[in-house]
Amino acid sequence: MRIALVVLAFFAAPVTAGPVSKVRADFLLHCAGCHGVSGDAGQANVPRLNGTGGNLLCTAESRAYAVRLPNVALARNVTDERLAALMNYVVFDLGGATHERPYSPPEVAALRAKPLVAGNLREERARIWKDIMRTCRPGTVKVVLNSGAE
Amino acid sequence: MILDSLTERFTRRLASRTTRRGFLGRLGVLAAGGVAIPLLPVARARAAPLTAFERNAQTVDDRACDYWRYCAIDGALCTCCGGGTHTCPPGTRPSATTWVGTCRHPDTGKTYLISYNDCCGKGSCGQCMCDNQDRETPVYRPQGNNDILWCFGLESFEYHCSTAVLLGEV
C-alpha cells in the first residue's frame, strides 16, 4: 500500500503544482529568471529585490527609476494595470515596503512612456541608491551594490 | 375558410404524430445544444492554436525531447545525465539565473510555469540533445532566450545539462 502511494505520488507530481496568483505568475515569467524566484539571485550579479526592493519607493526619483528601467518600462504584453500590480508585488510583497503609496496604473503609464534608454545605467543606478541611503535609512539599507545588470 | 381547414389539418396531424413528452424531450435537446454550441470547434478556434510541440507532447518519458515540460528546452536533458527534471547530476550545481516560460500539459490542457535551470560546473553531458522553442524569444530579448548559457554567477560557467523545474500552474 505504501509503495503504491509513493508510486502514485511520483507520477502525480507534475500536475499537482498549485495555481499561482496572476501577479506572481507575471513576476515568475518576466522577472524571476534573472532576479530569482524569491528575488534573491544576488550571487549572479543581479540586483537583490527580496527585502531591499521596497527602498525604491524612498524618493520620487527612485520611485520613477524603478519603472523607467528598460526591462520594466518596455516589458512586452503587459498592460499598465498588470505592470502596476507587478511593481507593487516587487516593492511590497518581496521588497519589504509597508506604508508607502502603491503604484497606480496611470502613474506607471506615465513613467513607462519615458524609459531609460540613454545614459549610463550603472552610474544612474549607483547615484539612485546613494541617494536612497542618504535620504531614507542611512546606514540601515541592505543594498547589494554589485556590478549587476540593470 | 381555406386557412381554417389548413390550420385544422396541420394541428390535427401535429397532435396525432407528437406527444407532450416528445416535445419536452426535443426542447431539452435544444436547451442542452444551445449550451454546448460554445464548445464546438468554431468557438474553440478563437483560443491560441496548439503548437507543433504541443500536438505531439507526451507525459510519460522525461528522457525524450517531446516530454511536455521540455516545450522550450535547449541542450542536454539532465534526466539522461544522472539528474532529474528538477535536479542536477552529482558534481554540478543549478544556475542561479534561468529563463522562465510556460508549457501546456497535454492531458489537462492547463498551462504551467517552467523554469529552465542549467546545471553547471562540468563539461557538457552531450546526451539527449533537444531544442524546442515554444514561446522562446530572439536573443535580443535575452530573458526569454534559450541559447544563452545561464551558468553566470557560479564559480564555474561550464554547462553540463538542462532541467525543467515546475514552478506552478498559471
Verbal overview:
- The complex is a heterodimer of chains A (150) and B (170).
- Chain A contains eight helices and no strands.
- In chain A, helix 2 (22-30) crosses helix 6 (80-94) and helix 6 (80-94) crosses helix 7.
- With 150 residues, chain A is mainly α.
- The longest helix of chain A has 15 residues, at 2-16.
- In chain B, strands 2-5-7 form a three-stranded antiparallel sheet, with no helix packed on it. A three-stranded antiparallel sheet of chain B has the order 3-4-8, with no helix packed on it. A two-stranded antiparallel ribbon of chain B has the order 1-6.
- In chain B, 25% of the residues lie in helices and 19% in strands.
- Chain B has helices at 2-17, 20-36, 41-44, 52-56, and strands at residues 74-76, 93-94, 99-104, 111-116, 118-120, 129-131, 159-162, 165-169.
- Chain A binds chain B through residues 14-15, 17-20, 24-25, 28-30, 32-34, 36-37, 41, 43-46, 71, 76, and chain B through 59, 68-69, 95-102, 105, 107-108, 110, 112-113, 115, 141, 143-144, 150, 152-154, 166-170.
**Model regions low in confidence, pLDDT < 50 over at least 5 residues of chain B:** none
Strand order of the largest sheet of chain B: 2-5-7
Query: What low-confidence regions of chain A span 5 or more consecutive residues with pLDDT below 50?
Result: 1-15, 144-150
Largest sheet of chain A: none
Report the order of strands and helices of chain A. Answer: HHHHHHHH
How would the global form of chain A be characterised? globular
Largest sheet of chain B: 3 strands, antiparallel
Secondary-structure-derived class of chain A: mainly alpha
**Radius of gyration of chain A, in angstroms, nearest whole number:** 18 Å
Strand elements of chain B, count: 8
Number of helical regions of chain A: 8
> Which whole number gives the mean pLDDT of chain A?
83
How much helicity do the residues of chain B have? Answer: 10-25%
